[in-house]
Amino acid sequence: MTAQQSRPRVVSAGFWCWAAGAVLLVAFGLLLAFSPDAIPSLFRGMGALFAASGLGLGFLAGRARVGDERFRRAAIALSLAVVVVLALFALYSRWPIWLLIMILTMVGAVLMMRPPALEWFALDQKDEPT
């Protein structure tokens, strides 16, 4: 990628939505997994799953921010899978924080699929030698 091709705003906004969602996923997932209260094992397992998916989403979002198309697609796929699981878990647990995380993750995925972002990632792929 050349210096004159700057990153579009939608890519930066999508990254920061993913980053905020990933931090919240890790924080509340660990809080749920290591809670001293007597909670069901299912909730502890889901907390560990959310923490792991938050770490994965943070890694993928960071690599997508620098222009790697493969990591962008993987982050979108992980985001959509996390949104589905969070929606079901939010209905079951009745914690509104999961809805905020779900919205941040979904908005990040939608922003990374906008036309300026697609064009920027496509330009980055053309610059690499084959």
TrEMBL record:
The chain crosses the membrane at residues 12-35, 41-62, 74-91, 97-113. Keywords: Membrane, Transmembrane, Transmembrane helix. It comes from the Bacteria. The keyword Transmembrane applies. This is Integral membrane protein. It comes from Mycolicibacterium gadium.
